[in-house]
Amino acid sequence: MSKLVVVDHDFTKDQMNLIKATVAKGATDDELKLFLYRCKNMGLDPLKSGQIHFVKYGSGPGSIITGIEGFRTKAESTGKHTGTKRGVIRSADGKCIGAWCEVYRSDWQHCAREEVSLVEYNSGKAQWAKMPETMIKKVAEVAALRMAFPDVLGGMYSDDEMDQAAKPHVEPIKEATQIIPFDQAKENAEYAPSNYVVTFGKFKGQELGKIDMYELNSYVAYIKQKAEQDGKQIAGQVHEFMTAAENYLSSREFERS
Questions:
Q1: Of 46, 54, 58, the residue nearest 25 (C-alpha)
Q2: pLDDT score, position 162
């Protein structure tokens, strides 16, 4: 069977067609090359369920999403992962309000433990509506794995974590689905972009100037796509973040040119 070589990946023609039709649906040739490069760089297999996939809505730029199996695979690859425990956090009346996870390393005396709140991540849609306990436990596990193995998982975030990015601070669009133009938003912005501290989501508490530009750009693209897909207008803290982030990214591009 003929081979197609893309960015040091050898896939058969049937495998490439499968990737294009499933895990990288809608990707352009350049986006597919970038996706496969990231897969190789991260040591993840796009043809293995739950490791890594590509998401794209409409004609906007795509996002590369790491699945929970990808996090587990990366953790196992260190040879130091000795176990994971996770569970649900419940209120006094038995209602699920969050989840916890403990990840153990052979060279650590104590485990890495994370606790996450359901209200911060529950989008109320799709799998979150059907099985919120399972979803919030996955978020807790990803966060604990990232804490335990920062060298291999730092800067990687799952789609379950990113689902909440545009959710808490959006308002319905009454007439048309559109995103507030950056140039228009910039007129009312008063901040030093690099020093702006993110107030929500996966970069909460971090200054823009200390965030990896690739990860920041992917996060901005994801929020735009999510808002457009849901027919929402970016507002509130998310709008403020988007204005600061795009201004910062633009200034960095200018510096590099």
A1: 54
A2: 58
Q: Identify the pLDDT of residue 244.
A: 81
Note whether 242 and 234 are within 8 A (CB).
Answer: yes
Distance of CA 110 to the CA centre of its chain: 28
Residue whose structure tokens are 């690099």? 194
* The amino acid at 17: N
Report field, pTM of the whole predicted structure over 0.85: no
Reported as a single tens digit per residue, the pLDDT across 96-112 is 999 999 999 999 999 99
List, in sequence order, every residue forming a beta bridge with 100; answer none if it has no partner.
87, 115
